[in-house]
Amino acid sequence: MTTSSLALPPDQLHQAMQRSRQRSTRRWQLFVSTPGRIAASAIIVIFTLMAIAGPYLYPKNLPIDTSNIYAGPSLAHPLGTDFEGTDVLALLVTGSRYVLLAAAVAAVITLGVGTVAGLAGGYYPRLAGSAIMRVADFVIAIPGLPVLIVLLTLWQFGSPLAMGFVMGIFGWGGIARAVRAQTLSLRERGFVEAARGLGLPGRRVIVTELLPNLAPYIGMNLMLAMPAFIYTEVGLFFLGVVPYTTSNWGVMLNDAVFQAGALTSTRALSYLLSPLICILLITISLVTLANAVDEFFNPRLRRAARVPAAAPERPGSGSLLSRPRRRTR
Amino acid sequence: MQLARKLAAKLVTGLVMIWVVATATFFLVLEMPGNPALAQEAADMQHGMSPAQAASATAVMFGFVPKQPLPDQYRHYLWQLLHFNLGVSIAEEGVPVSHIVASAAPWTVILASFGIIFSFLIGVTLGILTAIRRTTRLADGLTLLGAFINGVPVFVIAIMLVFVFATILAIFPQGGTVSVLETPGWNAGYLGSLVVHAVLPVACYTLAGLGAWQLTSKSSVITVLGDDFILAAELRGLRPLTLARYVARNAMLPLFTILAISFGLMFSGAVFIEEVFNYPGLGELLIASITTKDFPVLDGAFLLIIVAVILANILADLAYPLIDPRIRRS
Amino acid sequence: MNIRRLRVITLPLAAATAVTVVAACSSSPSSGGSYSNVTFTTISPNTVITPGAPMNPFNATSNVFPSFDSMTLAWNAGNSADPNQELPGLAQSWSLSANGRSLTVHLQPGAKWSNGKPVTATDVVDSTAMWFAEGLASGYNLGGVKADNSTTVTFTQAPGAFDNLFETVLGEGSGSSTSTNDWIVPSFEYGKLLPANVWSTIAASLGTGSGKTAAVTALTNLGKKIAAYAPKTDISAGPFYIKRLNNSQALLVKNPDFYAASKVHVGNVIMEHDSTNQQIAGLLESSTLDTSPFVAMSSSVNAQIVAAGNKKITWPALVASAIAFDENVAPYNNVLVRQALAYVLNRTAIQHVGEPVVGTPSKTTIGAVSAALPDYLTPAQESALNPYSPNTAKATSLLESAGLTLKSGQWYLANGQPWTITLPVAQGFSDWQDASSVIKSELDSFGIPTTITAGPQWPQYQLNLFAGQYPVAWWLIALGPGANPTFSRIYGAYDGYVGVGSSLTRYATGNAAAKNFFNTPNTVTVPGVGTVNPGSLTAKLAELQLGTAAGLAEQKQIASELVKTINYEVPVVQLWDYVSLAYINGKRFTDFPTSTTLLGQNPGVWMAEGYLAAK
């Protein structure tokens, strides 16, 4: 832990940070050079476009065809049809918005609340710290999925925003703890100590010094949180505990397994696999990108990935997985 | 002495948290529309009873639905809770909640304990292997596999396992805990049946957690491998075995915390698995009591989940300094 | 009710049982008292089995198994015309008095509890007191009971009331019913729960005197006490008793003291606990189950189950799905509009998507299942009904004559407002959900923009409906057995009619005494029938003495008028009739019953009748 930066005058310190940013640009080029990562980025872009523009490509009410139920793939229906003869591809595209929007909203809330709470808790460990962390512990202690199901019987989650909001509200505890730990460690580093030594107000130190340093960590967590939220919401629809009016990927899975019996007959296989493969593609892409981000800021990990944070509902993991590894200093 | 004080402080905060969460869930659960008797009445009517018959058939169950004002109910609930009394079920008309929860919880414990241990052991082994061989194609493959397994939703794994091993091959039962034909006790038949029934859900639990453990431990090991002290040790020419011990010790530390937390989360972590495998643990109980609106049972199940999480957190916090000397210093 | 992920479908039950004629149950096809130890496996259509919870049929837990260890006096045969058709249970025979107001029941000679003690008239009398405490008997208008001798009891109807004693006393539900029922329990175990003055309390609760409220409270408290009572072991008068329970299965073994033990050829029964349809399908495909309870399956799953060697058996169920209208709301107050909608909705396409396996498109809107029509109409009358074959041109002309207008693909009401429909679907009713999208598509393209909304769960859905919030809604109709319950789904409490005979009263929407949401006119004029009052006609059905030929004939007359009324008035558009579906796996057992009357019962009834033998 060097303290030499303390000796630097502010303008030199600024230049040093400039250089560091230039280095980042070179790393970015390194990042883009890997084919897997390009593919992953492309997949994410495609799905994002699908969620934004997809629903406009189709009529508001998808046509049904009761004489062509659970049809296999054909030219007219590249991914076959569902229980009422609706095109599965159309369902997939129009259903992407709910799933991705809800996951994105949840991830943003988780990250937003978690980062603010973690930063405040870490930077003011005595004042705000313990109070905020008690709240975070409280959020962690709440059994997420069951409470979510209870809430679903209370409110109707027709809107992806509502679904995302509730998932986010119960998801930020782990991130808050992780960010707090990172902040605590950054706080003792030279450049932060320098800034504090210069008498900069706490808010400024947090925004100009801590946040940029935490950004990659937060960004990585954002990417890792998304799949977790996608599982959770799709899982809820799959379990059949959420009322719904429009189709989405979870509803499709539920229909495929429980209505079409896709697991016991090949009849509706494309109906089952389509949403499943989309979920897998998104997840793997996000994990790949998260690795890239991590590597990119953490040269030790070059040529190797670092992947923590899994779905809250996964046994053996939980959102607590996103606690930082203890780094030896 | 310091430890005792710390422990006391943790326990007090823990109790406060239990109170807060119990209160929150109490009111949340009561907010759910309907009640068990109403749900039963509707079911009876769907079963073909006339409205009058259904109303009279559920009169008794209505008797179990508390009618006092909410604050009184809450006071009563807390008072009973202080006496370790969780109340009685409404949907099961007077059966103590503690009995219902206690008969479901062991199955979740069996499932989760083995699931966590197996996924930890296998995942960490694969993770270390990937980390050591991180420049090889094997590691790339393993990493991809880990990301892939991590990417499959747990309910999908569960359904696939049921489909292949229970429906098609029929080598494992589809659901349940133990064959009722076996006499309960420490006999081979009973234990064998327990194991046979647990294989698929435990395998599912293991697979679901595997990827996360693999990727986390890989990352942890790689970080340690790059540490200065390992480099120094290498330069000093320490034997690979000694080196491996250094690496293992340092890389495993963060994983143990996560392991402890995983055990705490076990009660709420198996909803999907228990649903698909028809394994009557706490997760299935939760879903069932949400369906029947049996709020005393829901409260009881939530309470158990919360207490487990909080206890695991306290234990993890307390145990950490013991296994990581550096923490004690700071 | 195709409850998607939820539980085994228990809807049909009373309904899912057999229709048409009660095929006389032939006596045991095989004889001999020996039985094999081969285990018979089926599913208990209840929720999770809880070891340690009461093995007491009055408790709502699922630790009791109707027809296996829990017995009623008789099992309802589920006859569409005559709800009094019963299969014998603990009662061997019975007779109704000439005025239909008292019922004498003779117990099975040799009926014994599983500890060897005989089943006596005292058991029946004490059990009846418990029905009152559980609130069952007052729903049946039961007045009282007395023991004539040790094996004979006589039930009497409450003064003033008239109900069908057979149905109510002998076996309110069918053998496959799961709801709390009029069980017979042993006095030596349960009698101690009854206070000495129980019958005077019951009398006070039935009366109108000052002590009524106190007596009702006392009975409710007694009911709670009885429901929570947990005998140490299972005491059964049925063919089996519970030997062991775990969280996922129950093991029942043969009761050697059962009155027809010599006819039972099965040694052990395993009850798998309730699971999802997907799991039941898996258990059937792996040949784990010897028979399944009623399950709603999609056509592809059904094909797979049958391919795995299971035999599919179907018979008409006494229940149908329909779209109901609130006639307080324009334009649904216009019969032409309702008729037009019946022409727009294509029942075949809707059923094909909504309920492909356990449904069949309704022939037309009649308020009863099509299979029950021969009970009510002659073939000539039947062919005179309007079939409402899909015909949008006809619908258009009807709407135009009702004063509605079609402009650029959108229908406008007489007041100039665009006509739109909102159709709520109760949560979990996936067949309604799936069918709704076809309905939406048909109505949309006809020019009535339709929105499907996710309604609340069933209890709240009903309350919203009764509060007049849904002008157009899904509804279950034609719930048999019997003509009165069938037509009451339209012209009964849900149309504001409560009471019988001179006490028949009509309440408006929003009145707590009734659940009126149909709001049909008091009288309607039906071509070929004349002016009818459907509410009083339906109520009259409850007063018929169905034990007599005259009663049955009168029922047929009234029902035929109601069918014609419903066919013309279209208070609902009937979409599909349900079909009862069971699977039989012949790998381990042979000699399954063939009559649908028996197939509609729980397998315990089959075994008591001598069916089922290990291969």
Q: Can you characterise this structure?
A:
The complex is a heterotrimer of chains A (329), B (330) and C (615). With 329 residues, chain A is an all-alpha fold. Chain A has a single domain (14-301), classed as MetI-like fold (Orthogonal Bundle), CATH 1.10.3720.10. In chain A, 67% of the residues lie in helices and 0% in strands. Chain A has eleven helices and no strands. Chain B has 330 residues and is an all-alpha fold. Chain B folds into two domains: 2-82; 104-329, MetI-like fold (Orthogonal Bundle). Chain B has 15 helices and no strands. In chain B, helix 6 runs antiparallel to helix 7 (137-151) and helix 13 packs antiparallel against helix 14. The radius of gyration of chain B is 25 Å and the shape is globular. The model of chain B has no long low-confidence stretch (mean pLDDT 81). By secondary structure, chain C is of the alpha+beta class. Chain C has a domain at 317-578: Dipeptide-binding Protein, domain 3. In chain C, strands 1-10-9-8 form a four-stranded mixed beta sheet, with no helix packed on it. A four-stranded antiparallel beta sheet of chain C has the order 4-5-7-6. A four-stranded antiparallel beta sheet of chain C has the order 12-22-11-17. In chain C, helix 5 (198-206) crosses helix 6 (212-228). The longest helix of chain C has 21 residues, at 549-569. Chains B and C meet through helix 2, helix 3, helix 4, helix 6 and helix 8 of B and helix 2, helix 6, strand 9, strand 10 and helix 7 of C.
Our measurement of the CA-to-CA distance between the termini of chain B, rounded to an integer number of angstroms, reads: 18 Å
Biggest sheet layout of chain C: 4 strands, mixed
CATH architecture of the domain at 317-578 in chain C: Roll
Largest sheet: number of strands, sense, barrel closure of chain B:
none
> What CATH architecture of the largest domain in chain B would you give?
Orthogonal Bundle
Look at the structure and name the CATH superfamily of the domain at 317-578 in chain C: Dipeptide-binding Protein, Domain 3
Q: Class by helix and strand content of chain B?
A: mainly alpha
Topology:
The complex is a heterotrimer of chains A (329), B (330) and C (615).
Chain A: H1 10-32, H2 35-57, H3 88-123, H4 125-141, H5 144-154, H6 160-169, H7 172-187, H8 190-197, H9 202-239, H10 249-259, H11 269-297
Chain B: H1 2-31, H2 36-46, H3 51-57, H4 59-64, H5 70-82, H6 97-132, H7 137-151, H8 154-168, H9 188-225, H10 228-235, H11 240-264, H12 271-277, H13 282-292, H14 295-323, H15 325-329
Helix pairs in contact in B: 1-14, 2-3, 6-7, 6-9, 6-14, 7-9, 8-9, 8-12, 9-11, 11-14, 12-13, 13-14
Chain C: E1 36-43, E2 74-76, E3 86-88, E4 91-96, E5 102-107, H1 121-134, H2 136-139, E6 142-149, E7 152-157, H3 165-170, H4 187-190, H5 198-206, H6 212-228, E8 240-245, E9 249-254, E10 266-272, H7 277-285, H8 299-307, E11 310-325, H9 335-344, H10 347-354, E12 359-361, H11 373-376, H12 379-383, H13 392-401, E13 405-407, E14 410-412, E15 421-425, H14 430-446, E16 450-454, H15 458-466, E17 472-477, H16 483-491, E18 497-498, E19 505-506, E20 524-526, E21 530-532, H17 534-541, H18 549-569, E22 572-585, E23 589-590, H19 596-599, H20 603-608, E24 613-614
Parallel strand pairs in C: 1-10, 15-16
Antiparallel strand pairs in C: 2-3, 4-5, 5-7, 6-7, 8-9, 9-10, 11-17, 11-22, 12-22, 13-14, 18-19, 20-21, 23-24
